[in-house]
Amino acid sequence: METPRFSGIASFMRLPVVAPADAVGRVDIGLIGIPFDGATTNRPGARLGPRGVREASTGTRARNAATGVAPYELAACADLGDVPVNPIDVAATAQIIEGFLRPLAEAGLVPLSIGGDHFVTYPVLRALGRHEPLGLIHVDAHSDTDDGQYGGTSLTHGTPFRRAIEAGVLDPRRMVQIGLRGSVDAADELDWAAGQGVRIVPMEAVLARGLPDVLAEARAVVGTGRTYLSFDIDALDPAYAPGTGTPEMGGFTAREALQIVRGLGGLDLVGADVVEVAPPLDPSGITALAGATLAFEILCLLAQAVDARRANRDGAARA
């Protein structure tokens, strides 16, 4: 707060920018842009998501007024820049993202990735779940467990979680999807995921049960193990987030989205992302603001998880 928030070079949350090679041993949580939308099957624009979220995030402050969490007092946080993606090669970009994240994950750094289309979550999960499959809380309008589209293409923003389950980096029995809605291509579109043990809570069930009950179930599904949180901005109704590639009517309000994230405190989160923010599709900037606000809320959860793991390690060392 030494200079006005509208001045200077925009970084995520106005955090210091640290090169990935310099972050190991110094940074607990790294905010990472993944500016890639080459796997989108509808409207492009999410490649500019990191830039838009950085700009919108300069308005965030140091303490969460609702939860009381001050993330920068709990964990060392920094903007680690953008992954140098290949904008026209999906397979090459998957390797680049995984290669960027793997040494950070091996060093214990917790990534908060800002996409980019939802495909980018797959290589992130490959980096984080290499030694042990992760649990997942997935907030989205779409399941993203397709097998492929358009001539058998297996790497799209509709396939990341199927690929992650197949790769053994994601445990489907510890995976819950919240808020799915909209039209589908076939009656059996969700059968594969359900058959793997994925808990699917469509929007109709959320409305019937209420968010507190759904969140309690989500927490029970992932349990106390290592967990990843993936939040697709199209989980929100287009009235609150019009700038996204595949909008679906009937989504969460902005207030409900905050309630979802705040209801996940205390989980052993080892990484998270906010994806599918497409600023060119929303000149008003509302969607980028929603993405930045959710990113800060998620950052608070990650900082609490980092602090809890540190306390557990210190307690074990003293014992």
What can you tell me about this protein's structure?
- By secondary structure, the protein is of the alpha/beta class.
- It has one domain: Ureohydrolase domain (Arginase, Chain A), CATH 3.40.800.
- The protein contains 11 helices and 8 strands.
- The longest helix has 33 residues, at 286-318.
CATH top level is Alpha Beta
> What is the arithmetic mean of pLDDT?
95
> What letter string, H or E per element, gives the SSE order?
HEHHEHEHEHEHEHHEHEH
Low-confidence runs: none
Q: Predict the CATH topology.
A: Arginase, Chain A
What is the CATH homology-level superfamily? Ureohydrolase domain
What percent strand? Answer: 15-25%
Shape: globular
Offer a quick outline of the entry.
Helix content is 36%, strand content 16%.
How are the secondary structure elements laid out?
Elements: H1 20-23, E1 29-34, H2 49-57, H3 71-74, E2 77-82, H4 90-106, E3 110-115, H5 121-128, E4 134-139, H6 160-166, E5 170-180, H7 191-196, E6 199-202, H8 203-209, H9 211-222, E7 227-232, H10 254-262, E8 269-275, H11 286-318
Parallel strand pairs: 1-2, 1-3, 3-8, 4-5, 4-7, 5-6, 7-8
Helix pairs in contact: 2-11, 4-5, 5-6, 10-11
